[in-house]
Design goal:
The complex is a heterodimer.
Chain A: H1 5-46, H2 51-64, H3 67-78, H4 83-86, H5 91-117, H6 120-128, H7 133-163, H8 175-186, H9 189-222
Chain B: E1 2-11, E2 14-24, E3 29-33, H1 40-47, E4 55-60, E5 63-66, H2 72-81, E6 82-85, H3 97-107, H4 113-126, H5 142-155, E7 160-164, H6 172-187, E8 192-195, H7 199-205, E9 208-213, E10 216-222, H8 223-228, H9 233-243
Classes of the chains: A mainly alpha, B alpha/beta.
The structure holds adenosine-5'-diphosphate and magnesium ion.
The site of magnesium ion (MG) has 4 residues of chain B, from helix 1.
Chain lengths: 226, 245
């Protein structure tokens, strides 16, 4: 067996090119998923009748089923039910929908737990001086809850990046698909997969660095909690 | 002038407040004493609308709230015109001492930031914590936290200040600084309703003392009279127990 370094070197620019698809998909899914999770967490925490029940089921469903099955069900099962949409929805968009929904369930759960960890007294104190529930939530409780939730939120973000490697299964041409293709063309699977692993690792390492940076920054602006 | 009329509150089947009437004049200081679990906190929380009473009425100056069918607007009005000081302080941990006080002024009273800060600095001077203005709550002692919390309540110029056992969570050596501050406020003729177990403090600072048990006010009168010569059997039993602790 000979390990072909040159093959890897030749592969790197191709991987980097397709990493933009991975990064774009990840960033959008993080953005959309996080926004959804915000509202889901507040609704569940506030115990808004009916809605909170619905979103508890939503969280349980997306956390309790495999992402691959969700992708297949949506792309091959649900979209074809609406013939008008089949041509309009790309596999990239379908992947974005499922990644956003699934990740929002995880993030909503960490946010909800973080909100519960902030003592109720601060909410009451804010209301006692005349702030509305939502003012107190957004100005007092959430800034502290987000600080508490940063580590679990970041592991969700990192999971999103890793989960994008599954979406080639519905035909999105991203890094993983490229690795498979290039590996097959030269029978250089080991080199191709090592190359793709290192690019993923580089992306998630940058995220880990960002997390540290944000923790330090929030630590200063939010003050110590409890 | 604040009037509580026939206030009732139950949690499920547990009747906690069973018809409380109380008239409080402007500038009056009233202490409420009584055993734990008799609804003292709940009464304050009903006035501040953190709990919604089941029946009765609250009148503050010309604004009368019918608690039987209270509206959202009434609730906000009551909260904005009354202020609560909690046993557990509950400062906003994500905000500096100064911002704990400006928060309500800016968000609730819609004051300009510069104006709010000017007022907050004045209040901090009053509670003796000017040099802590940029500290976060986590770096304060319990007594300092409670003084900031009193400042936060004062800043909104409430028609009445409600204190729920303001010194019960404090180490003994920190109790005094808080009591001194409350006494100072009494001298400035702030209207206050104070739930406390500090009987001597209640005797010295209040115009009137109410003894509350099982959701009712069993006895009330001038502070020194009630505490030195209670007329109600239950009041004197309670005072004996507290004095000999
Ligand atoms: N949110 C609540 N839900 C159910 N029961 C409550 C609640 N708040 C207080 N209680 C009950 O009401 C009674 C009076 O409580 P509280 O007003 O705190 O008394 P106090 O302040 O005089 O010690 C207690 O039996 C307490 O357990
Ligand atoms: Mg109490």
């Amino acid at each position: 067996m000979n390990f072909d370094f040159e093959f890897i070197v030749r592969l790197i620019p191709i991987m980097l090119k397709y990493s933009t698809v991975t990064i774009k998909l990840s960033c959008l899914a993080i953005l959309i998923g996080f926004t959804i999770s915000f509202f889901v967490a507040i609704i569940v925490y506030t115990n808004i009748p009916i809605l909170s029940k619905i979103f508890k089921i939503y969280i349980s469903f997306f956390r309790g089923t495999p992402l691959m099955a969700q992708l297949f069900c949506f792309y091959f099962g649900i979209i074809p039910l609406f013939p008008d949409f089949v041509l309009k929805i790309s596999s990239f968009q379908a992947a974005l929908v499922i990644l956003s929904l699934a990740s929002s369930a995880y993030m909503a759960e960490s946010l909800r737990a973080a909100i519960s960890s902030i003592h109720r007294g601060q909410m009451e104190a804010a209301q006692s001086i005349g702030m509305t529930y939502m003012q107190a939530m957004f100005r007092i409780i959430l800034p502290q809850a987000i600080k508490v939730a940063i580590p679990t939120l970041f592991s969700s973000f990192i999971n999103i990046v890793k989960d994008t490697s599954l979406v080639f299964a519905i035909g999105v041409k991203e890094m993983m698909a490229t690795a498979q293709l290039e590996g097959a063309s030269g029978y250089r699977y080991l080199e191709a997969y090592i190359c793709v692993l290192f690019v993923y690792w580089a992306i998630t390492s940058v995220m880990g660095y960002a997390q540290k940076h944000i923790e330090v920054k929030l630590g200063k602006s939010v003050g110590e909690i409890n | 002038m604040i009037k509580l009329k026939n206030i009732h509150k139950a949690f499920g089947n547990l009747e906690v407040i069973k018809g409380i009437d109380l008239d409080i004049s402007n500038g009056e200081v009233i202490s409420i004493i009584g055993p734990s679990g008799t609804g003292k906190s709940t009464l304050l929380r009903c006035i501040n609308c953190l709990e919604v009473a089941d029946r009765g009425g609250i009148q503050i100056e010309d604004f009368a709230v019918n608690l039987d069918n209270i509206t959202k607007h009434d609730k906000l009005w009551l909260r904005r015109n009354t202020a609560m000081v909690f046993q557990g302080f509950y400062l906003f941990n994500n905000k500096t001492v100064l911002k704990n006080i400006t928060e309500g002024l800016i968000v609730v009273k819609k004051m300009k930031k510069s104006e709010a800060e000017k007022k907050a600095l004045k209040i901090l001077k009053q509670v003796g914590l000017l040099e802590k203005k940029d500290s976060y709550p986590s770096s304060l002692s319990g007594g300092q936290k409670q003084r900031v919390a009193i400042g936060r309540a004062l800043a909104l110029d409430p028609k009445i200040l409600l204190f729920d056992e303001p010194t019960s969570a404090l180490d003994p050596e920190l109790v005094n600084e808080v009591l001194v501050l409350i006494k100072e406020l009494a001298k400035q003729k702030k209207t206050m309703l104070i739930v406390t177990h500090e009987i001597n403090f209640a005797r010295n600072v209040s115009d009137r003392v109410c003894f509350m048990e099982q959701g009712m006010i069993l006895e009330q009168g001038p502070a020194k009279e009630v505490i030195d010569n209670p007329k109600n059997e239950r009041t004197s039993q309670f005072l004996n127990v507290v004095r000999h602790r």
